[in-house]
Design a protein that fits this description.
Elements: H1 2-7, H2 23-59, H3 65-73, H4 77-89, H5 100-107, H6 111-118, H7 126-141, H8 146-153, H9 159-179, H10 186-191, H11 198-215, H12 218-230, H13 237-254
Helix pairs in contact: 2-4, 2-5, 3-4, 5-7, 7-9, 8-9
């Protein structure tokens, strides 16, 4: 329905009014107008290209071209400079399926990505260009996408395809993280040996015992360890104490005090 309504529109300014348009009507109408504006803009770029050729032929130089063209066309120098920059950026391309705003977004994309986007026969929106740029940046910079970068360099896949795959990977990881059970398992956390080496922990324990006994009075040590253990909110310190006591008793049997001078 909206297509039939929009097909009747023209750029003369005498456009029929769509009665009670829906949100979809508004979106589709804007997209169609955006593409039409893009076609008009590319026509301007084409005329400027032809004018540049004539100016060069007549003057054997390009110096002063933009100022002369802006003055004769009765547009600002800044506007003429912008169009001139765009036509020089990709003078060999004639993308008729991009609006002016989309075209400006494409200009900041890496050359190989820009070339791939411009080769498309389908209309491309600003948001699609931004997504492609974001994905291609991930291809170039994220090590997890090194395979995509290699495939692009070997021309196995094109930049736009690689960017889409990179974006899909990111969204998949994001979804997995959102769906992951965020319940914190305290017991699992305490019992986990990740980032711990038993040799290092045992050496530190032995060093702590040595420092406590060699530097402090036995009663002080007992009192301070008691204070450190008595607040056992998660019921792990005191069980650990008794388990450690068994281990220490066994070690005392294996390492008797014979011929060893005690410190305290």
């Amino acid at each position: 329905m909206i297509a039939s309504k929009l097909d009747k529109l023209d750029l003369s300014g005498n456009q029929p009014v769509i009665t009670d348009p829906s949100w979809g009507d508004c979106v589709d109408g804007f997209k169609k107008a955006d593409v039409e504006m893009g076609s008009a803009f590319h026509s301007k770029v084409g005329w400027m290209n032809k004018a540049a050729d004539i100016y060069l032929q007549d003057n054997n130089k390009m110096l002063g071209f933009v100022g002369k063209f802006a003055e004769d066309c009765e547009v600002s120098y800044d506007y003429a400079s912008e169009i001139n920059r765009i036509r020089q950026q990709d003078s060999g391309c004639t993308p008729k399926n991009f609006s002016h705003i989309t075209w400006k977004a494409i200009l900041s994309a890496p050359k190989e990505l820009r070339k791939d986007i411009l080769s498309s026969d389908k209309p491309v929106t600003v948001s699609e260009v931004k997504e492609a740029k974001k994905g291609y940046k991930a291809v170039q910079e994220d090590e997890s996408n090194a395979d995509l970068k290699e495939k692009v360099e070997s021309k196995e896949i094109k930049p736009v395809e690689a960017a889409k795959i990179a974006n899909d990977r990111f969204e998949k990881k994001k979804k997995e993280m959102e769906e992951r059970d965020n319940t914190f398992d305290l017991v699992e956390h305490i019992s986990s040996t990740e980032n711990y080496e038993i040799g290092v922990v045992a050496t530190n324990f032995a060093a702590s015992m040595e420092q406590l006994i060699s530097k402090f009075d036995g009663d002080q040590v007992t009192d301070q360890i008691y204070l450190a253990l008595k607040e056992d909110v998660i019921n792990i310190k005191i069980p650990a104490l008794h388990k450690m006591s068994d281990i220490l008793l066994e070690l005392c049997e294996r390492l008797p005090l014979t011929n060893i001078k005690t410190l305290n």
